[in-house]
Write a structure and sequence with these properties.
Elements (H helix, E strand, L loop, with lengths): L5 E10 L2 E11 L4 E5 L6 H8 L7 E6 L2 E2 L7 H5 L2 E4 L11 H13 L3 H14 L15 H13 L5 E5 L7 H16 L3 E5 L3 H7 L2 E6 L2 E6 L1 H6 L4 H11 L1 H13 L6
Parallel strand pairs: 3-8, 3-9, 6-7, 7-8
Antiparallel strand pairs: 1-2, 1-4, 4-5, 9-10
Main location: membrane
EC number: 7.4.2.1
Protein name: ABC-type polar-amino-acid transporter
């Protein structure tokens, strides 16, 4: 029996009195793509950040590649080197070229020499289709290109797992496709990926599993056809109907505002 690449057990996370995660159990196999969907405030991004220990869980355990990263004695820097993270914002250094943005973390964190880091940078820029932008600076790139550079930067570190936190949410609609195409390619290459997203077409086409979260718990976990195509729970059906019908969502938000604002 194979060991899960990611295993989350009874994960809780609170910020003061606000309990954001309420006992999450989740496993991912190596090479699996899991898309996490759900309304704002459901705990999706917090779950992702706990998997990388960017947020310290209040209770519970997280294992990556068989190592418990929530063990107080673990070498968390060594574990994080195996986990690539791509955020909503690109977080590129504006004063560095694209190549320099990719080589600096390799040299600082992995100790690679300049030539080796440059070769790895070039390889990963090619993977995301941006070889011609190697000497460009972030300000000269579109948002989609900057996000693809951010993906290349994460890949250059040689991760075993990639975490994506709404990677297209800050992009204009016409720029989303190129970023999703890169992620589709990574999935075909067998990269283990956990993706927090509202892109239902991507989830249906690429994900092996879809996890729907609401209120800090996992409501449904199954194949895309099960969770998106034929959801069992009313909470899932309601979320998908609002997501696929923006006009309905606007009406509900206006009504909520009139009676005292949306529930958190």
């Amino acid at each position: 029996m194979t060991r899960p690449e990611i295993r989350v057990r009874d994960l809780h996370k609170s910020f003061g009195d606000n309990q954001v995660l309420k006992g999450i159990d989740l496993e991912m196999e190596r090479g699996e793509v899991v898309c996490v969907i759900g309304p704002s405030g459901s705990g999706k991004s917090t779950l992702l950040r706990c998997v990388n220990l960017l947020e310290e869980p209040t209770k519970g355990q997280v294992f990556v590649g068989g190592t418990e990263i929530t063990d107080p004695d673990v070498d968390i820097d060594a574990v994080r080197r195996r986990i690539g993270m791509v955020f909503q914002q690109f977080n590129l250094f504006p004063h560095l070229s694209v190549t320099e943005n990719l080589t600096l973390p390799q040299r600082r964190v992995l100790g690679r020499d300049k030539a080796s880091a440059a070769r790895t940078a070039a390889e990963n820029l090619a993977r995301v289709g941006l070889s011609e932008k190697a000497e460009a600076y972030p300000a000269s790139l579109s948002g989609g290109q900057q996000q693809r550079v951010a993906i290349a930067r994460a890949l250059a570190m040689g991760p075993q797992v990639m975490l994506f936190d709404e990677p297209t949410s800050a992009l204009d609609p016409e720029l989303v496709g190129d970023v999703l195409a890169v992620m589709r390619r990574l999935a075909r290459e067998g990269m283990t990926m956990m993706v927090v997203t509202h892109e239902m077409t991507f989830a249906r086409e690429v994900a092996d599993r879809v996890v729907f979260m609401d209120g800090g718990v996992i409501v449904e976990d199954g194949t895309p056809d099960q969770v998106i195509g034929a959801p069992r729970h009313e909470r899932t059906r309601h979320f998908l109907s609002r997501l696929l019908d923006p006009a309905m969502a606007e009406v509900e938000e206006e009504t909520s505002d009139q009676v005292g604002g949306p529930a958190q």
